[in-house]
Amino acid sequence: MKIDLKNKLHIFIILTVSIICFMSAMIVLSPYTQQPIKEDVDRDGINNDVDNCINLSNPDQLDVDNDGIGDICDTCTDTDGDGYGNPGFQANTCPDDNCPTASNANQTDVDQDTIGDMCDVCPNDPKNDVDNDGICGGVDNCPLEFNPEQKDSDGDGIGDTCETPPITMFTYSPLDPISDETIQFWDNTTLGGGVLQTWRWTFGDNTSSTEQHPKHSYGTVGSYTVQLNVTDINGKTSMIIKNITVFPNDPPDTPTITGDFIGITGVEYTYLLKTFDPDGNKIYFSVDWGDTTNRVDLGPYSSGYEIAEKHTWRTRGTYILTVKARDTHNAESNDTLCIVRILRNHYILTPSFIQFFKQYHQVLFYQIIYT
After folding, report:
1. CA distance 172 to 184
2. Second label for 277, Cα 20 to 30 Å away, from 162, 229, 293, 371?
3. Contact of 321 with 341, CB cutoff 8 Å
4. Which of 125, 126, 149 has the alpha carbon at shortest distance from 136?
5. How far are the Cα atoms of 53, 250, 285 from residue 253, in angstroms, in the given order?
6. Distances from the Cα of 364 to the Cαs of 21, 263, 288, 367, in angstroms?
7. What pLDDT sits at residue 6?
8. Angle 351-360/362-370 helices, nearest 10 degrees?
9. CA distance readout (Å), 254 to 260, 276, 362
């Protein structure tokens, strides 16, 4: 049929068909054209209907405890579900959980280290194995030093690693030794955490000793370095070094004796004794009067000092007066020997009479007395 646009009937038919087609198309497309407009209030790229935190931008949509509320909006991020929030989440208004990885509603913390006992590898150690040796401080025998083997040689409850070392010290005598003189060494070490077990001495002349209190002598004058190392039962060691000077030594000179060598019984006579020591050492005198009295030891005196010693002979006779000197290192001089003649005490043999004949008529005097 030929359409005539001037024909009202034709126009009506065309409009009616067009309306029917439009309505049919709208019915077909209605599921797509009638959806509501989607919104994103916080502009994080996540529409409100699926955004786990609508009012705060959180494009990562983090939700640690998987409760459907984004961490940035969650007032109690609580992964173990015990009602206490994981520390570090700013939105939390609930108390911090002292053990966020295990449910512990009672929040027990015996050692008060802010770590709940259920999470605390050392629940009785507030320092939580500070030395990182795997042993908690409550039972660690050396809590501040790494000692996983917990060795305790002396069984005192203190690990060897923490034991106090000894303080080594020694003394010796004489303080100014001479060559070939025996020197006594004494260990004066102060104990640390355990008893001493070993001693090691080196004397500086390629000799050594393992005794606690050794003796030693040096054959040559000089300076020597003495070292003492001690070790206790815990394996703790300590050492000390001292320098010892060995001096040369010569004996004192032969003593001189000044006094009366002719006398009478019952009279006290004074004798002056004197000598010098080449090394300046102090001097001892040993005097033997030649009679039944005991030998006399005198001193010490400074080198060159003259001493006075008195003696009385009780019976007539000829006596040998012997004097010897020795220094503080026991080096001895030669003996000085003097013959002393003691006469009976006749009334005419006064000390002045004897002195006169000794000085002027000694030969005649002895001929009269002894012949």
Report:
1. 5
2. 293
3. no
4. 125
5. 113, 9, 12
6. 189, 16, 30, 5
7. 67
8. 120
9. 19, 8, 27
Distance CA 159, CA 100 (A): 35
Strands 336-343 and 262-264: parallel
Provide the 10 A C-beta neighbour count for residue 303. Answer: 19
Q: What is the Cα–Cα distance from 58 to 68, expressed in whole angstroms?
A: 13
Query: pLDDT tens digits for 111-129?
Result: 888 888 888 878 878 878 8
Find tokens 């206490």 and name the residue: 84
pLDDT of residue 283 exceeding 60: yes
**Rounded to the nearest 10 degrees, how much is the dihedral formed by the CA atoms of 98, 100, 105, 109?**
-30
pLDDT class of 201 with cuts at 50, 70, 90: very high
Sheet holding 296-301, edge to edge: 262-264, 336-343, 317-327, 283-288, 296-301
Sheet containing 307-312: give its strands across: 256-258, 268-274, 307-312
C-beta neighbour count of 179 within 10 angstroms: 15
Q: Residue 299 has what pLDDT?
A: 96
Query: What is the spatial distance between Cα 362 and Cα 371, in angstroms, rounded to a whole number?
Result: 14
All residues at 6 or more sequence positions from 299 whose CB lies less than 8 Å from its CB, including other chains = 282, 283, 284, 285
User: DSSP code of 254?
Assistant: P
Structural element, H or E, at residue 367: helix 362-370
Residues 288-324 have pLDDT tens digits of 999 999 999 999 999 999 999 999 999 999 999 999 9
Mean pLDDT of the residues in the chain: 87
Do 275 and 258 meet the contact criterion of CB atoms below 8 Å apart? no
Are residues 310 and 267 in contact, defined by beta-carbon separation less than 8 angstroms? no
CB 350 within 8 A of CB 262: no
Residue 3 backbone zone (phi > 0: left; psi -120 to 50: alpha; other: beta): beta
Q: Using alpha carbons, select from 188, 185, 192 the residue that is nearest to residue 166.
A: 192
Distance CA 345, CA 351 (A): 10
Torsion of CA 319, 320, 321, 325, to 10 degrees: -160
